[in-house]
Design brief:
The chain is an alpha/beta fold. The protein has twelve helices and 15 strands.
Length: 449
């Protein structure tokens, strides 16, 4: 049994600040600009001994059409429908607005338990706004400050009451702490703006979970969604479109791109989504190279495959560009999909899981050293200062990505070309296609020293 809590309110009242405080991380982008949050963002909230599922939502606008604001409002309404408790946040400093009153009326009709948080109550300027909040007819408002932590004890009491009510209604028993949960695979979907990342994830989930539309750059925050595929728990992470650095000028876009890069850093597998009609662009290669430098497994997905005419030419062009521009990582999986039509999505997920398994590969030390003697005999390293630079020993201290420690007589004199030879042989002999490989060079001890 998990309590579900949704934070709602008009734009720029401090919803994302509260979300970040309760999840204990700066997951949601925060800025003075109204309307930063657009999608439902989900996280694990924590307050003292309570644990709960938490939604951050877009600022509520009084629109019902098919505009971006209208679609954002529907995402917020879906969060309210899922919630066991709704936190309606108002700005006590500016006082109530007609928009606050409209949505308070909507929440009364929803029959969901509601707590009014009068935010920004850390000074006397907020006293009038706090008193105004009583007029919403949703019970006593909580004097609150998301930024400074004022009112958290009162919020805890409301959350505890809601948790106990849900447990009594469901007749469930909370699981004992310490039960081991299966590992969650983290897949980050990245790419340039408007290549179809959110549409692809919605199709995988089978619901309109993420905001989509013809406008480029709708997604700003990196939104993670828990999901299960073939009994394997997966966390899908949607990210903001990443343009070339020279074209990024607005502060919000810089924050969104930085958030997307963090998603890459913490992902297990990165799915780089391409537009089939545009192919593998320079910016795509920049994103792929960053993924490899971060040591993440990489899968290339060519989207919008349903509209491509010369398919052989497109896929040959992508593979050729990968071969020329990323020769250090051979065998990166390339999968063709259509997020809009839902084609070959199982193939994409299977490729991502295979890439994850390769990324986790651990090779036994005896096998590695037998391999090392064979490759050294077939192609010895270059001489160092007129003497043979012998390779003595190899081990794999870690996976994720596969990392190998190589002991040799003169590690500083072992050229990069020879390391590439060893890497290519490792990939071929131990079946490690498309995953980053790391070498740590160490000087072997001289037994006569």
């Amino acid at each position: 049994m998990t309590l579900t809590v949704a934070i709602v309110g008009r734009p720029n009242v401090g919803k994302s600040t509260l979300f970040n405080r309760l999840v204990g991380k700066r997951l949601a982008l925060v800025d003075d600009t109204p309307g930063v949050t657009r999608d439902r963002r989900e996280g694990e909230g924590r307050l003292f001994d309570l644990r709960f599922r938490l939604f951050d939502t877009a600022g509520l606008e009084d629109v019902q059409d098919e505009s971006l604001e209208g679609r954002m409002r529907r995402q917020s309404e879906l969060a309210i429908e899922e919630a066991d408790l709704v936190l309606l946040m108002v700005d006590a400093r500016t006082g109530l607005t007609s928009t606050d009153e409209i949505f308070a009326d909507q929440l009364r009709r929803s029959e969901r338990p509601v707590v009014v948080l009068a935010n920004k109550c850390e000074g006397r300027a907020a006293e009038a706004g706090l008193l105004e909040a009583y007029s919403l007819g949703l019970g006593d408002p909580v004097a609150f400050s998301a930024e400074h932590g004022l009112g958290l004890e009162d919020l805890y009491d409301h959350l505890k009451t809601a948790e106990e009510a849900k447990a009594a209604e469901a007749g469930e028993v909370v699981a004992e702490p310490g039960e081991k949960e299966p590992d969650v695979l983290q897949f980050a979907v990245v790419g340039r703006p408007n290549v179809g990342k959110s549409t692809l994830i919605n199709r995988l989930l089978g619901e309109e979970r993420l905001l989509t539309g013809p406008e480029a750059g709708i997604t700003r925050d990196s939104i993670s969604v828990e999901w299960t595929y073939n009994d394997r728990p997966i966390r899908l992470i949607d990210t903001a479109g990443m343009r070339r650095k020279a074209r990024v000028s607005e502060k919000l876009e810089k924050l969104a791109v930085a958030d997307a890069l963090r998603a890459v850093q913490y992902a297990h597998v990165v799915i780089l989504l391409l537009d089939a009609e545009e192919g593998l662009e320079r910016q795509d290669l920049t994103i792929a190279n960053h993924t490899i430098e971060e040591g993440r497994a990489l899968v290339i997905a060519i989207n919008k495959w349903d509209v491509v005419k010369d398919r052989d030419a497109v896929i040959a062009g992508v593979r050729d560009r990968l071969q020329r521009s990323l020769p250090q990582v051979k065998g990166i999986p390339v999968v063709t999909v259509s997020g809009l039509k839902g084609r070959n999505l199982d193939g994409l997920l299977d490729a991502a899981i295979d890439a994850y398994d390769v990324w986790n590969t651990k090779v036994a030390t005896p096998d590695l050293n037998r391999w090392l003697h064979e490759v050294e005999a077939a192609h010895p390293p270059p001489m160092a200062h007129g003497r043979r630079n012998r390779l003595k020993y190899i081990s794999q201290p870690k996976a994720r990505p596969p990392t190998f420690t190589l002991f040799c007589a003169q590690p500083k004199d072992l050229p990069d070309s020879y390391l590439r030879y060893l890497e290519n042989e490792l990939r071929h002999d131990f079946e490690l296609p498309g995953t980053p490989i790391r070498f740590l060079l160490r000087k072997s001890r001289n037994p006569y020293a």
